[in-house]
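Tokens in:
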């Protein structure tokens, strides 16, 4: 019996090792970044969930020269065992000016976004023309009968004047473009034609400017894209602008809401044009030079972000940003959740007293550590406003146009 137990033990140990190895290989493939950045050829260590054991990135000896960057092909290893091939890009470190000031955002869609489908009551019963046309919530209508449509008023007028004739639509769904046909129906008691959809053509709000690249005269803010409140889809950008703003009051977090900085716009003149609305934030060109309370800082590479004390820059009243203490609780390199790579805990007593923690409107607030810009606040942890998430500054700078 003891002999059989020994045999089973000897057999199970390598099986456990193989299962662990392939699990780690799948994890690194699906979750770990495909690229890292460095100012020099160096071995990089990244913490694992196993105490005292780190992942290693070891560059080979051959530098590959390309038009856009120079890089090394590397192995992502654990205990010397290769798990994934990645690129180590050799780049010059970037200096940017941190801001942490509020700004107003106005963004207009490239077409009209469908936010809701509903039935239309007709003489022949309830009908939903949009559903029959295979239209879904989140779709964006860009053209009707070959003509571009950019406002809900334009679309409503086309439908009302259709006299029930079929309309040819050009639609974008995610990255897919397609055509469909929709036939308006007459609503009972209203004597108007309808197609059974609610649409939106613009969005606005208050956020925080993270940094400006003075060489390019470009800005970056929010740390996450502007999404439609009903569909949670990124709003496709046709045109957008940013305005100066001031924070008037604070709605503290409660069981019913996550809290909010409430502000208003200062004047009607835009200070910048939004060029991109993507998962990493809003980015664009400044029309006026913004004054900053802070000197330029170097943008940290993601592997330089560490657990421990840090600072955030945020404006919670008026227009003047202040520095507050936080702690970096965890650093994640998960490429599937780039807006939550940094986990923070608010430790500053004055900030906790005034806001209760992280609240809406603080998105984009710069995170500073070791005199480097390491990231920006993006989200609050819904059940604990003292905790929040951030995006790597490296991710934002790589999305700057």
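Residues out:
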């Amino acid at each position: 019996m003891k002999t059989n137990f020994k045999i089973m033990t000897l057999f199970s140990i390598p099986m456990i090792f193989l299962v662990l190895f392939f699990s780690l290989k799948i994890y690194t493939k699906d979750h770990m970044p495909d690229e890292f950045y460095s100012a020099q050829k160096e071995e990089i260590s990244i913490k694992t969930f196993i105490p005292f054991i780190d992942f290693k990135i070891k560059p080979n000896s051959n530098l590959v020269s390309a038009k856009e960057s120079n890089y090394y092909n590397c192995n992502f290893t654990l205990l010397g065992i290769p798990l994934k091939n990645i690129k180590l890009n050799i780049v010059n470190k970037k200096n940017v000016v941190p801001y942490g000031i509020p700004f107003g955002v106005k963004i207009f869609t490239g077409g009209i976004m469908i936010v809701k489908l509903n039935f239309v009551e007709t003489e022949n019963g309830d009908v939903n023309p949009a559903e029959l046309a295979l239209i879904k919530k989140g779709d964006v209508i860009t053209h009707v009968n070959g003509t571009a449509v950019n406002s809900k008023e334009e679309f409503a007028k086309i439908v009302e004047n259709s006299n029930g004739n079929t309309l040819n639509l050009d639609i974008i769904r995610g990255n897919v473009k397609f055509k469909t046909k929709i036939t308006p129906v007459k609503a009972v008691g209203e004597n108007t034609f309808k197609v059974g959809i609610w649409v939106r053509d613009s969005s606005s709000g208050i956020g925080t400017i993270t940094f400006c690249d003075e060489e390019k005269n470009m800005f970056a803010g929010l740390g996450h894209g502007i999404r439609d409140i009903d569909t949670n889809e990124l709003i496709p950008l046709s045109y957008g602008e940013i305005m100066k703003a001031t924070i008037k009051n604070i709605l503290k977090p409660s069981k019913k809401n996550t809290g909010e900085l409430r502000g208003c716009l200062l004047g009607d003149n835009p200070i910048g044009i939004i060029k991109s609305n993507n998962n990493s934030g809003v980015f664009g060109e400044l029309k006026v030079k913004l004054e900053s309370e802070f000197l330029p800082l170097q943008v940290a590479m993601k592997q330089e972000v560490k657990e421990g004390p840090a600072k955030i820059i945020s404006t919670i009243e008026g227009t003047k940003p202040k520095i507050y203490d936080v702690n970096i609780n965890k650093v994640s390199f998960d490429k599937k959740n780039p807006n939550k790579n940094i986990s923070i805990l608010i430790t500053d007593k004055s900030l906790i007293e005034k806001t209760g923690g992280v609240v809406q409107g603080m998105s984009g607030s710069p995170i500073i550590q070791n005199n480097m810009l390491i990231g920006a606040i993006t989200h609050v942890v819904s059940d604990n406003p003292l905790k929040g998430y951030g995006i790597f500054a490296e991710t934002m700078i790589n999305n700057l146009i």
